[in-house]
Amino acid sequence: MRTKTLNYLAKTIAWKRTTDPQYPFAAEVEGERCIIRLNDFPSEHLYTLLVNGKEIVSFDDWSVKWSRPAKEKTAGQAAPNKSMDARRKQRLSSKVVR
Known about the structure:
Elements: E1 13-14, E2 16-17, E3 25-29, E4 32-38, E5 47-51, E6 54-59, E7 66-67, H1 82-94
């Protein structure tokens, strides 16, 4: 597959999260496989865009035309336990002197 000459930074791209921490985002643009590589920042640019395995451009600032998926919560960022909050409120309300 031949890589077309496109200004990928100016294109609207909806990226999807991958499971590879070195290549955390992927997308398909006009039939071309695009991936974002994290580099050794600050000695290198933060990101490199690869299209069909070929380095296209390295950059530091994410394009305003690109959308990243929301970061997934880790186990340590789990939502608070609502049932525990309800029990705590019930306990506090029962201690109120009337």
